[in-house]
Amino acid sequence: MPVPSKLSSPDSRSCIPKPRRARCTSWARPRCLQRALTTKLTTKEERDERDELEQQLQQRYLQNLPQHEPLLLVKPEPCPKVERSGGAQLAAALGHVLLRMVSMASPPNRPGQERISCFQSVKLPEVGITSYATRLHRFFRCSGECYVLALVYIDRLLKRQQDIAVTELTCHRLLATSVVLSAKFLDDRYYSNAFYAKVGGLTLTELNGLEKRFLLMLDWRLHVRAEEYTLYHDLLDTVVSRGLYRDQPSEK
């Protein structure tokens, strides 16, 4: 058997099957009528008799159709409008939550017992944590969901690392690092670490080290389940709805 030297492309007309012509019938003809239609009738009386039989069968078919009740068109009720918190509000709410965590942190028993970590600043920052969170949102331009993930990451870190606490010296670096990680993990577009470090008041080397250390402490687990996300989002949304982030009496 000769082998073809050149294979035909799938675009050739020989490979395209011819479309079948579909029969549009509103009702199924019986076999007796089908045979009558296929047989060749010569006289006019036979053709008229066949047409009359077809009309009778078609009318009988239409009479036996089940009677359906008319559809009841009910006007749908308008869905209640849900007000969702914006990114700026969620950022300020996250700053308020961190401020509450700072106030609830237990002080050391004696001088020199402070828990030193890589997230601890040398001196107390001049800007408050809520204003710092607002500044991050202004320049980072990340989505509002990033602040929910940042709160999840900070809470995970505190549960896994007992030697780290949210204090006045650590809250700013924890916030900046967690927001950077959440923006890179969630958003499609994000900036370089050089830009993030400049906005956060850090050096590039410091931010790179904090990001690496944060990931190692979390065991690189940045995925957040839907139930967990809803829980932390409701917490920030409660702060926004009550307007608690607007009143910061103890913030420096």
From TrEMBL:
Coiled coil: none
GO molecular function list: protein kinase binding
InterPro entries xref list: Cyclin-like_sf, Cyclin_PHO80-like
Domain of life: Eukaryota
SUPFAM superfamilies: Cyclin-like (SSF47954)
Protein name as annotated: Cyclin
